[in-house]
Specification:
The complex is a heterodimer. Chain A is built from nine helices and ten strands. Chain A is α/β, with parallel strands linked by helices. In chain A, the strands form two sheets. In chain A, strands 6-7-8-3-9-10 form a six-stranded mixed β-sheet, sandwiched between helices. A four-stranded antiparallel β-sheet of chain A has the order 2-1-4-5, with helices on one face. In chain A, α3 packs parallel to α5 and α4 crosses α5. Chain B is mostly helical. Chain B has a two-stranded antiparallel ribbon. Chain B is globular, with a radius of gyration of 19 Å. Classes of the chains: A alpha/beta, B mainly alpha. At the A-B interface, α2 and α3 of A face α6 and α7 of B.
Chain lengths: ~240, ~280
């Protein structure tokens, strides 16, 4: 049963550097929340905080009734939080099937070939050879395999860290369909992305981070018109028209 | 039949040595498969060898009770060692565990109960080739069974990418702890068998050169392949017998072989064999 991810006043510090400051947001089941902002704004740090990699200096993170902060990363993953990485982190020396089985590590039983095929289909790569080494796959397929691996965990929340990086427009368009289908299945999606076309097409709401703080929040259309966001991140209004 | 009897009479010691070395190689392979360059196997084997020898010589424990006690001790020590080294990786873990091995050697060298630098002699010679290979078979079957469990998947994921493994729900700390303790248990079994097969122990039997030998067996066979580790141990144990002229240059020979394997087959000889098998047509 998917649950809502709630961040309340989350702060992360690295020594004297404030990476995140009092960030609050929620990702509901079936919703897609975009997280945008300039490089260094704290987007990936936020994902790292949710997954237990970056310790919190303040605030709380909860999935439904369960508090996540303070739990080790593997227990947060088992609670229903799955992610992909900005720099792909597949198990490169292992084959596609084992990578999918890795995603389902916390699930009981072994993964059948049929279940593996279904996951690949959901990620938009139905014809991928299950015996192929992950590191030998084309870049776009690796990105999608990482999504399939995350889906194998049957998560409540899926966090995608720049999934369209390096993809061409056609691949990005197909990615929009994939993300929508994932959300339609009841999974809450937190999407970090610089490609505003993708964000506008896939997200219901957007949170803008700047210097670790929430600069703005709203629908993609509202964000695109926000003067503070335009000045800090989007540039001119013409560039996003 | 006569041939086998004669062969065994001539080579029983070598066969015993191969079996024990295979166990030591498996013990290191367990750690290497989890991505841990933990070089304490000689130390674990040494602890178990002395515990088993002392239990049987001074307290007259029966063989199997002595071996069980020895394996329990080496497993416990390995588990305890896993805690202080839990944050160390790669070369730092290697250095720390080599240091542990040297501490064991120095302690054994200075205790009266272990016979000091002169070692222990007159250990009951109760272990024969059958017991050694029976033990090897039990360990191999257990590891084979383990290879089909989620623990084996967790071990592989921890080796490949610890952060990503945690991200899919693997308790990598537990995997590292369990693999070091399991390696300690297998090394302990090898050490206890060694004590009772060769009835003499000296601190130098379990020093750094021994650890280096175990590492070479695994690297030559393939660091992620238990079968490769056993094959590497068997090959380098037999080699001095095949090339008798090189018997006095064992460490140099090992070094040269290691260099050649690292240069031309860095994943070990077992990988070459697997690659060759994969390229042979099915109807060949």
């Amino acid at each position: 049963m998917p649950e809502t991810l709630v961040l309340d006043g989350v702060g992360v510090r690295y020594g004297g550097v404030i990476a995140l400051d009092a960030v609050s947001l929620a990702v509901a089941p079936g919703a897609t929340l975009g997280l945008i902002g300039p490089n260094g704004a704290g987007k990936t740090t936020l994902i790292n905080a949710v997954t237990g990699i970056a310790p919190l200096a303040s605030g709380t993170i909860a999935l439904g009734e369960r508090r996540l902060n303070g739990l080790p990363p593997h227990r947060i993953a088992r609670a229903g939080i799955a992610r992909t990485y900005q720099n792909i982190r597949l198990f490169g020396a292992l084959d596609v099937r084992t990578n999918l089985a890795a995603g389902a590590f916390a699930q009981p039983g072994a993964m059948s070939e049929e279940a593996a095929r279904r996951l690949l289909e959901r990620a938009g790569i139905p014809d991928l050879d299950l015996a192929a080494l992950a590191s030998a796959l084309p870049y776009g397929d690796q990105r999608r395999l990482e999504i399939a691996r995350a889906l194998a965990a049957q998560p409540s929340i899926l966090m995608l860290d720049e999934p369209a990086a390096g993809m061409n427009p056609a691949e990005t368009a197909r990615l929009v369909e994939t993300i929508r289908a994932i959300a339609n299945a009841g999974i809450g999606v937190l999407l970090i992305e610089h490609d505003m076309t993708l964000v506008r097409a896939a997200c219901d709401h957007v949170v803008v981070l700047n210097f670790g703080e929430v600069l703005a929040r709203g629908t993609p259309a509202e964000i695109a018109r926000d003067p503070a966001v335009i000045e800090a991140y989007l540039g001119t209004t013409e560039s996003i028209a | 039949m006569t041939f086998f009897v004669q062969f065994y009479a001539q080579h029983s010691r070598l066969l015993d040595e191969i079996g024990i070395n295979a166990l030591l190689a498996l013990s290191l392979s367990v750690s290497l498969q989890a991505g841990q360059l933990a070089l304490a196997q000689a130390g674990f084997a040494g602890i178990a060898a002395y515990v088993s020898a002392i239990a049987s010589m001074q307290y007259h424990w029966p063989l199997f009770a002595s071996i069980l006690l020895a394996v329990a001790c080496s497993t416990l020590v390995a588990a305890l060692l896993a805690y202080p080294v839990r944050r160390l990786r790669g070369i730092f873990l290697a250095i720390a565990t080599v240091g542990f091995g040297e501490i064991v050697r120095v302690i054994v060298n200075n205790l009266s109960i272990t016979g000091g630098a002169e070692g222990l002699s007159g250990i009951p010679n109760d272990v024969n080739t059958g017991i050694i290979y029976g033990s090897l078979a039990v360990v191999a079957i257990a590891l084979f069974g383990l290879a089909r469990t989620k623990f084996a998947l967790a071990v592989a994921l921890t080796r490949e990418d610890e952060a990503a493994a945690r991200g899919v729900g693997v308790d990598t700390g537990l995997v590292r702890f369990a693999s070091l303790a399991l390696g300690g248990a297998i090394a302990g079994l090898a050490g206890a068998l060694y004590a009772h097969a060769f009835y003499f122990l000296a601190p130098a039997d379990f020093g750094f050169p021994r650890m280096e030998e175990i590492l070479v067996w695994c690297v030559i066979g393939g660091v992620t392949s238990p079968i490769g580790a056993v094959a590497g141990a068997a090959f380098l144990s037999i080699l001095p017998e095949i090339i008798r002229g090189l018997a006095d240059f064992r460490e140099i020979t090992n070094g040269i072989i290691l260099l050649v394997v690292i240069l031309f087959a860095p994943s070990g000889l077992s990988v070459l064999w697997r690659a060759r098998r994969a390229t042979v047509p099915r109807d060949a």
